[in-house]
Amino acid sequence: MVSLSHWVEGLKSVLKFGIFGGICYLTIRREMDNILMLGAMPPAMALETSVKIAMKIVFNAGLLMILLALADYGYQFWQYRQKLRMSTQEVKEERKNLEGDPTSKRRQRTKQMELSRSRMMSNVAKSDVVVTNPTHFAVALRYRPGEDGAPRVVAKGADYIAKRIRMEARKHGVPIYEDPFVARSLYANCKLEQEIPYTLFRAVAEILAYVYKISGKLRSQPRLSGRRPAAAAKRSSRGASWAGGGSGAGPVPAI
Predict the structure, then answer these.
(1) What's the rounded Cα separation, in Å, for the pair 184 and 165?
(2) Which is more confidently placed, 163 or 46?
(3) N or C: which terminus of the chain carries fewer CB neighbours within 10 A?
(4) Which of 159-164's residues contact partners 24+ apart within 8 Å by CB, and which partners?
(5) CA 226 to CA 199: how far, in whole Å?
(6) How far apart are CA 148 and CA 106, in angstroms?
(7) In this structure, are residues 104 and 96 in contact, taking their beta carbons and an 8 Å threshold?
């Protein structure tokens, strides 16, 4: 089957010959009187007249050929751009080949987030205390003297994730301590597996000392030096809750 480009090329060739022939015909017809008089003219004048007629033919034909060439150039450029232009499906396929399938990448990211969240939730069972807001934020802390330079954030979350952290803590009997200021500060300033900042040493040390005492853990109280923020010193009350209760000195608040 003959393509459109072949038809266009054939049409251009016909137009070129047609235009050249038409220019010759019109010029000769216009100069017909001079052509008929060539035989009666002196040789020099006849030659000069013939050259003038030929120059008119060449000039007119050349001018139209230039215009035709410009039109042909415009068509060739348009055709070139059309060939380069890809369809929407071709763009999607090329992007998929270069960057990977977006759907697969989303599934992979979702799976990675779920695995990361699952690992974080498993760390709650190994934590020493979960500090809460009490509902909007929850941060699980772990402190191993000799291993950690300071208490470390092993899990944290807001809203729904905070609720899951609290549920996981109750499931494994991890103390839940309500302190809005410390919970918000830990959530905002600490990344996962990061040790707490120096400014929170005093507040967190008091929390750990309290939960160690009422949970009856045989562990030395954490000795973390640091200046406690003024806002933390003004807190009027603290509260802790256990999933499984605890033994030792001091009252154990209800869940």
Answers:
(1) 15
(2) 163
(3) N
(4) 161/117, 162/132, 162/133, 162/135, 162/136, 162/137, 162/138, 163/135, 163/138, 164/121
(5) 6
(6) 36
(7) no
**Span 89-135, pLDDT tens digits:** 666 776 766 666 667 677 777 777 777 777 888 888 888 899 998 78
> Domains in the chain, start-ordered, CATH in brackets?
4-85 (no CATH), 107-241 (3.40.1690.10)
Asked whether the beta carbons of 17 and 9 are under 8 A apart, the reply is no
Six-digit token pair at 120?
């974080």
Whole-number pLDDT of residue 145: 83
Give burial (CB, 10 Å; 0-12/13-18/19+) of 210: middle
SS3 151: coil
| DSSP states along 152-171 | EEEEEEETHHHHHHHHHHHH
- Of 157, 117, 162, the C-alpha closest to 135 is 162
Instruction: Look at the block and give the residue holding tokens 């499906």.
Output: 89
